[in-house]
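Q: I have 123 residues here and want to know how they pack in 3D. Can you give me a structure?
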Amino acid sequence: MRFLELTPMLWVPDIKQTVTFYTEVLGFTCDNSSDEWQWASISRDTVVFMLAAPNEHMPYDRPKFTGSFYIRTDEINALWNELKDKVEIIYPIDNFEYGMREFAIKDNNGFMLQFGQEIETLQ
């Protein structure tokens, strides 16, 4: 038996605002959405997130996640140049001793998104 993929489901207070951030700022596509279900699915290449409004099954007071979403890319410098003036930076682009060149931002809900590329693959 194999696990085939992981698709994070993010609870957000405003799905339309979050879809707009991910599509207009980060270049994702909204693949599917439902106002009735208060749900959307967004993707860029092989990265997929689902977005949902909080529901009665779990207490909810704000978006929260005690980690980050690490997204590997093949053109880290171009992505940094595209985003650096449009988003809230958590830490700027840098090379790290573990062999990655990366940076981190906050999305419109405060979730941390890290973007990285192996230094050896930089052109």
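Q: Anything worth noting?
A: The chain has a mean pLDDT of 94. Helices lie at 15-25, 76-83.
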